[in-house]
Amino acid sequence: MNSNAPAPLQLFSAPLSMFGAKVQIAMLEKGLDFSLTMVDFDWTRGYTPKHPEVLRVNPKRQVPVLIHGELELFDSTQIFEYLEELQPQPALWPAGIAAKARARLLEHQSDEVYFPHIIRLMGLQKTLDDPVAVAAIEAASRFYDEMETLLAGRDHLAGPYSFADIAFFMAQLFGERLGASMTEDTPRLRAWRAHVPTACGSDGGGGYGGLAGGAGATCACFFEGHGLVVGS
After folding, report:
1. Where are the domains of the chain?
2. Band of pLDDT at residue 230, cut at 50, 70 and 90
3. CA 205 to CA 203: how far, in whole Å?
4. Is the pLDDT higher at 24 or at 16?
5. In angstroms, rounded to a whole number, what is the distance separating the alpha carbons of residues 40 and 15?
6. How confident is the model at residue 52 (pLDDT cuts 50, 70, 90)?
7. What fold is seen in the domain 9-86?
8. Is the domain 97-225 a CATH 1.20.1050.10 member?
9. In 10 A of CB 177, how many CB atoms?
10. Quick check: 200 pLDDT over 70?
11. How far is CA 184 from each of CA 57, 153, 174, 189, 232, rounded to the nearest angstrom?
């Protein structure tokens, strides 16, 4: 065995994990070689029994978990920050202290402001007139309005394509499926959603690698493998 060989990257994710999907897409964007373990799931038992490596690494008992040699990480944002240092190109944070901070805040808002409303919709798809569902959809719509304003004069949320786009794209994909749809009142946001999974930046890193081909072939496999259909 070659003791000088680089330690393998091991990602533990799950079929219905938006947070795991964020990390997986970022790793594909960066062209990293990694092994992926999708933890067991079924509609009756959920994620029970929990995967032993997930239980060992994460006291919250959740994916994603990343193992890289002796380093063990959980939380999608913490994992991404490590990936950005590990593989700086293509960069998925914008350059500059202020621009980076704004992008990080947008990613945080996607996870902690927008997505909790989507979680409240789980199990309510057949009763979207339920007061809980109505309130969640209204809150999601207000967030869409904020992102619509933000996109005036730009193609991506933080200026250049970034992890903020990955985070909100995946969160909104779940929102769309659970009843929190965009409307014609947010045309820039709808155009952003149509553009992000198909764009391929000049540096080869944009738009989930570009689903049209080339570097995007691996990322296309992500969507196809998870049964996800994207579009306007």
Report:
1. 9-86, 97-225
2. very low
3. 5
4. 24
5. 8
6. confident
7. Glutaredoxin (3.40.30)
8. yes
9. 14
10. no
11. 44, 18, 19, 9, 11
